[in-house]
Structures are given as structure tokens and as C-alpha cells.
Design a protein that fits this description.
heterodimer; A: 448 residues; alpha/beta; 22 helices; 52% helix; B: 12 helices; 0% strand; binds iron/sulfur cluster
């Protein structure tokens, strides 16, 4: 019996004001009109190809951590999620009731992390995540989105960052961290809006809001390595993108455009992003395409790539290795999403005494269940999400049993998701970013 | 009876081939040309080298991560698909008809016993797929009448072929039914899920391109 059944948790009827108020405004006519408009004008060959080619073999099922974690309940198999959403939409030609739209939203927003593991397991390479994202697009257009996620999207629209950070709060946070860091590195600066710098460093909204320590650490690493860098003083500093998860493609595109424009205004040579998987996905896979850029207008690299570069070029050096055993959690958006798993391991090995692999790993990793916006659906959905990744908990427990005490995860979402899992399943593990470890164990030649 | 035989061994053969080839070509052409207008990603990100590597991995048994996790399914699917292609193309009877018919060309046939064995493998494969559809909840929940339909569509020519070859039932009737079943299957390919025979190359190749050249990872 699954944990959900044991604890009598109703995973079907979860209240969410965003969804409930959203469907209260719907009429059957509007539902039909919006759905068909999107199917006719925004989809083309891929949807048809995927729906017509899928042979209903169920081979994608084992890829999904939701399916594995909920006792192989077909409701959670990838093709099962398509059956409950896209097939229904197409068979009924958009004639759905408001209650059925709510069901679409529950499946699409809260039961799929868009992690694309199933695509890697399907013999035809069918992209389930594309179809689930399409369902989200429909729900967004119908105004049926989870409350917490929508709040972050509103923040993106109003303030161009995810956390309602005002412009002066942003620069204040940077100056405060600069101040703090100068106790350790007397000459450290966080160069604000320095034109022509080599690198623009960008972060996600939560960093100035409540993880300012990460800005301190990044500034220390950048300072120690002696690179010429800057951070923007204008909007565009936040590289996160919740709108790409809510289905608000227009805003998702605008966020990415603003991000690149901030860099272009500063005339930097490239952008380095903090350790966030989904933010990275937004620039190379989603927002760039919305803006009709095949890749990006100027180079963008993820922190993992940047740390690897600093290490191999000798700009940062290892003072001593972090004692004990660590394991590396592959964030889907940079491992399966960008092939950075080897670089991540290279840096981890350089700074840590021993790296113990968890399986499955690398590009076949299991998702942390936070990604794809699922964690951003907020508290109402937390329990279901945590129970939806007992598969990851087992994986973590296996490495803990081998003596691992620290999980390295170069992704903000993964931290959120894994943190919840570690607490719920009582695992003796701590989480670290690569930046945490580098900051602590690098040689600090410029410190006092 | 002879009229029926004349029909299925004459004009219907041509109709079936025309529908199969014409329908398949039309389907692919329409997909790819619509993609140019409405789904530019497919053409824009297409990378032949990644596509070909991916085809090879997915067509080789145990060449992909998932196929190693599903050993029985992997062996069955591989033999089944091999049978579906080999039996029609290398049966002596088919080749004789082909040469005597308008095509006028031929290639070496496989021994009858081998082809016969393959036909049984195909039927066995159909039975296995049917079993999966009934027994595995994740497959049963996505199975519809059409899925049973295509299974029957594929099984029919092989079953009737076996009966005809082994002289079970009236020879002329069995042969005629066999021909009819084969023609129906062939003509149905472009218009049913069997079209995965054509679309596999597009979906697989496109996914391989996105994984390989955009995201720099394997898709197998
Ligand atoms: S969570 Fe990942 S594996 Fe599961 S259906 Fe979504 S994309 Fe596929
Ligand atoms: S998506 Fe792929 S693996 Fe899943 S049922 Fe369809 S064809 Fe099979
Ligand atoms: S949160 Fe981490 S593991 Fe999960 S989808 Fe994002 S990158 Fe993947």
C-alpha cells in the first residue's frame, strides 16, 4: 500500500484558490473557443506526430518518478497523463466542462515536472513534456493556474523578477552583501552596471530576497578569480522564469528578452548564471525560441560551466578538500538538459574527498520532483509532491547507507525539492551548492 | 471463388501498394511541409548525425537504457518487427508472384521453413502484445479498441499465411483470404497507428537532434 493510501491523503481533491476561482469564471463556450484557438493556431506537426505515433505501449511509465513513487499507479504514467489531458481535449474537440479543465490543470501543473526522462525512455522519442506544457498553456489562457505559481508570474509581469523585489531593494541587497564581504576580502566590489565588463552575473529572484549568502559567496569566488564582472542595476538581473511553467509564453519570452537586453546594454561579453537549472532552461530552450533566437544572442553559461572553467584555467585553486563522502544530484535541466554532468563531477571531485555515485544518474537521473514549476504550486500541493518522489528518497537513502552525508546539487529547485524529501523521510543528509563548497574550500589569496 | 481470387491477386494488389506508398509519401510530405510553416523547430534543429546514431541505438536490441530494463519486451519487439519485414519480402511464393507480375524483378528468397518460423514469431509477438494490453495496468489503461484493431490487422495476414502454407482449410480460400488480409494491412498503414513505420524516423530523429545538438546528451 502506498504511503498516501496509508496516511489517507486525498491526492485528488486538493484545494487551490487559483484553480477554483479560475474555473468559476468559465463557461463551456469559452473553454471550447480557447482550446480550439490554441490547437489551431499554436500547434502544428509535433502534436499531431506525437499523438498519432504513440502506440500506447506504456514503455515510458518506468521513467517517471511519480509513477514509481505512487505504486505504479497508471494515473501517473507519462502516457497516462497524456490520456487524461491531450487525448481528452482532442477527442472532445475542446468541449470540456469547467470541472474537467480543473482536472487538466491538476495533472499538468502538479503531476509532471517536465523533466523529459520519459522522452528518453520512449522508443519514438515522444516528448510528453511538450504536450503537458501545451495543456498548461491552455489552462493559462483559460485563467486556471495554481495560486502560488500565478503570484510569481504576476511578480514577473510587474517587477520583472519572481519575488516582488523593488529596484532599490535589489541594489541595496547587493551593497549590503558587498559590505559584508569586505570584512573578509577588503578590496571586494560588486561592480554595479559596469559597462564593458567581461561577465554579467545573473541570479534568481530568491537570492536577494532570502538567500543573500549566495550572492556573497559568488562575489567572493568572482573576486578571488580576478575576473572582470558586473551585475545589472536595472531589471533583467533575475534569470528565473516562472511564466514558462505557467503557460504564459508571452511573459516568458519577455523575461528572457529583458535578461539579454540588460547584458547588451552593459556591453558585456557573456552572461554567467547562478546555480539554477530551470533558469538555464529558460534561456537556451524556451525564451530564446519565443524571441526567435535559435540559440542566444550572446553566450550564456551556467555556474557549473563557469566553475569548471575557473578551476581548469587555474583561476581558483583548491585549498583543501572537503572531508567525507558526497554524492552528486544531477539536476535534469543541466544534465539531461545540457550535458553538464561531467563538468559538475569534475568540480565536485576537485573539492571533495570522495564522490559516491547514486543510480540512476547523469543524463538518466531521476528528477527531484520540484522542477517544472511543481514546487512553485506552493503549500497546498507539497505533501503530494513529496510523496510523489519516494523514488528519490530511496535513491538518497542508498547513498546515505554508504556513508554519504552531503548531497551536492547545483540547482535551486533541486535544493527545494530535496530538502523537503530529506525532512519527510528523515534522511541524514545535508545539501550544498557547488558554490558553497568552493567558497569554503578554495584558496583565498585576496582575503584578509 | 475464382472471381474473388482474381480480384485479390490482381487489381487489389496494385491498389494496396498504391495506397501504401502513395499514402505514406503523402503523409510524410504533408508533415514535413506543414512543419516548415507551423513547427520550424523540426527543420531548424534537425541534425542528421545525431538522428542516425539514435536510429542505430534504438534499432539495436539492448542499445538503449530502457531496452535493457525491459529485456523480454526488447527481444519480442525486435523479432516481431524483423518478422513483419522479412516474411513478406523473402517468401518464395511472394517473389514468384512479383517476378511473374508486372515488376519482372526478384531477389533470393529465404527457405520456406525459416519464413514459416518467422511467421509464428510474428503471431507470438501479437499474442505477447495482447497479453501486455490485458495484464499490465499501465498499458491496459491506455488501450482502446483501435489498438486491438491494429493488432488484428497485423496478425491476420500472418495467421492466414500459416494456414495456407500448411494446407489447413480450403487452399484457394485461404490463399485468397491471406492476400486480402495482406492488402488490407498494407493499405491501412498510412491511416492508422501503423504509420509509426514512417513517423518513427521523424520523431526519433527530431528528438535525437534536440538531445544531441542542443542539449549535448544521448537520447538512448
Ligand atoms: S515528470 Fe518527467 S518523466 Fe514524469 S511525465 Fe513528466 S516529464 Fe515525463
Ligand atoms: S509515449 Fe512512447 S513509450 Fe509512452 S506509450 Fe507512447 S509510444 Fe509508448
Ligand atoms: S529542479 Fe532540479 S531536478 Fe528537478 S526539474 Fe529542475 S533541474 Fe530538474
Amino acid at each position: 500500500m502506498s504511503e498516501a493510501a496509508e496516511k489517507k491523503i486525498d491526492i485528488v481533491n486538493i484545494e487551490d484558490t487559483g484553480l477554483d476561482q479560475g474555473i468559476a469564471r468559465l463557461t463551456p463556450e469559452r473553454i471550447e473557443k480557447v482550446i480550439n484557438q490554441i490547437i489551431d493556431t499554436e500547434t502544428g506537426v509535433r502534436l499531431k506526430l506525437y499523438v498519432d505515433t504513440c502506440v500506447h505501449c506504456g514503455l515510458c511509465s518506468d521513467a517517471c518518478h511519480w509513477y514509481l513513487s505512487y505504486d505504479r499507479n497508471p494515473r501517473f504514467s507519462p502516457v497516462g497523463k497524456v490520456r487524461q489531458t491531450i487525448w481528452k481535449i482532442l477527442e472532445r474537440k475542446g468541449r470540456l466542462s469547467p470541472a474537467e479543465v480543473r482536472e487538466l490543470a491538476v495533472v499538468a501543473y502538479t503531476e509532471c515536472n517536465l523533466c523529459r526522462r520519459c522522452q528518453q525512455f520512449c522508443p519514438f522519442g515522444i516528448e510528453i513534456a511538450y504536450m503537458i506544457a501545451l495543456v498548461r498553456r491552455i489552462c493559462h489562457k483559460l485563467g486556471v493556474t495554481p495560486l502560488y505559481m500565478q503570484d510569481t508570474c504576476h511578480s514577473h509581469s510587474a517587477a520583472l523578477n519572481q519575488m516582488w523585489v523593488k529596484e532599490d531593494e535589489w541594489t541595496d541587497s547587493l551593497q549590503w552583501q558587498e559590505d559584508e564581504a569586505r570584512d573578509e576580502f577588503p578590496h571586494l566590489r560588486i561592480p554595479l552596471a559596469k559597462e564593458g565588463a567581461e561577465i554579467m552575473y545573473s541570479v534568481i529572484g530568491p537570492e536577494p530576497k532570502f538567500r543573500t549568502q549566495l550572492i556573497y559567496q559568488a562575489a567572493s569566488i568572482l573576486h578571488e578569480s580576478g575576473v572582470d564582472w558586473t551585475m545589472p542595476a536595472t531589471p533583467g538581473w533575475d534569470n528565473s522564469n516562472m511564466c514558462m511553467f505557467s503557460g504564459d509564453a508571452e511573459m516568458a519570452g519577455r523575461i528572457v528578452k529583458e535578461h539579454f537586453e540588460a547584458a547588451l546594454r552593459l556591453k558585456v561579453k557573456r552572461i554567467v548564471m547562478g546555480e539554477c537549472g530551470h533558469a538555464y532552461r529558460a534561456v537556451y530552450d524556451v525564451g530564446n525560441r519565443w524571441n526567435a533566437w535559435k540559440m542566444f544572442p550572446l553566450p550564456v553559461i551556467h555556474s557549473v560551466q563557469f566553475f569548471h572553467e575557473l578551476l581548469t584555467s587555474g583561476r581558483i585553486k583548491v585549498r583543501e578538500k572537503m572531508p567525507g563522502k558526497v554524492s552528486f544530484n544531477d539536476p535534469c535541466n543541466i544534465s539531461r538538459g545540457m550535458g553538464l554532468h561531467d563538468m559538475g563531477r569534475h568540480v565536485t571531485r576537485a573539492f571533495c574527498e570522495e564522490l559516491v555515485e547514486m543510480t540512476p544518474n547523469r543524463e538518466h537521473n531521476l528528477c527531484c520532483c520540484a522542477g517544472g514549476g511543481v514546487i512553485n504550486c506552493g503549500p497546498p500541493w507539497k505533501k503530494k509532491r513529496v510523496l510523489g518522489n519516494s523514488a528519490k528518497a530511496e535513491q538518497l537513502r542508498r547513498v546515505a547507507d554508504q556513508g554519504v552525508s552531503i548531497i551536492v546539487a547545483p540547482c535551486h529547485n533541486c535544493h527545494g525539492g530535496l530538502d523537503d524529501i530529506i525532512h519527510h523521510y528523515n534522511l541524514p543528509l545535508k545539501l550544498k551548492f557547488l558554490g558553497d563548497i568552493i567558497y569554503e574550500y578554495m584558496e583565498k589569496t585576496r582575503a584578509e | 471463388m475464382h472471381g474473388f481470387y482474381a480480384l485479390v491477386s490482381g487489381p487489389l494488389v496494385w491498389v494496396a501498394f498504391a495506397v501504401f506508398l502513395g499514402g505514406g509519401a503523402w503523409k510524410l510530405w504533408r508533415l514535413l511541409s506543414t512543419a516548415r510553416r507551423k513547427d520550424v523547430f523540426i527543420h531548424e534543429y534537425w541534425s542528421w548525425s545525431h538522428a542516425v546514431q539514435s536510429y542505430l541505438h534504438w534499432l539495436t536490441p539492448f542499445g538503449s537504457e530502457n531496452s535493457r530494463r525491459q529485456p523480454v519486451m526488447t527481444v519480442v519487439t525486435f523479432l516481431f518487427h524483423l518478422g513483419v519485414v522479412v516474411v513478406p519480402l523473402f517468401t518464395l511464393g511472394h517473389l514468384v508472384l512479383l517476378e511473374e507480375g508486372a515488376l519482372g524483378l526478384s531477389w533470393p528468397a529465404l527457405p520456406d521453413a525459416v519464413v514459416d518460423a518467422f511467421a509464428f514469431v510474428v503471431l507470438g509477438g501479437c499474442a505477447y502484445f495482447g497479453w501486455r494490453r490485458l495484464a499490465l495496468p499501465q498499458v491496459r489503461s491506455v488501450t482502446s479498441a483501435a489498438d486491438w484493431g491494429i493488432l488484428a490487422l497485423v496478425a491476420a495476414p500472418f495467421a492466414t499465411g500459416i494456414l495456407a502454407y500448411h494446407g489447413i482449410g480450403d487452399a484457394l480460400l485461404m490463399t485468397s483470404l491471406h492476400m486480402l488480409a495482406g492488402e488490407v494491412m498494407l493499405a491501412a498503414i498510412p491511416f492508422t497507428r501503423l504509420s509509426h513505420m514512417f513517423t518513427f524516423w521523424v520523431t526519433r530523429g527530431y528528438t535525437a537532434s534536440e538531445f544531441g545538438s542542443v542539449r549535448h546528451v544521448r537520447d538512448w
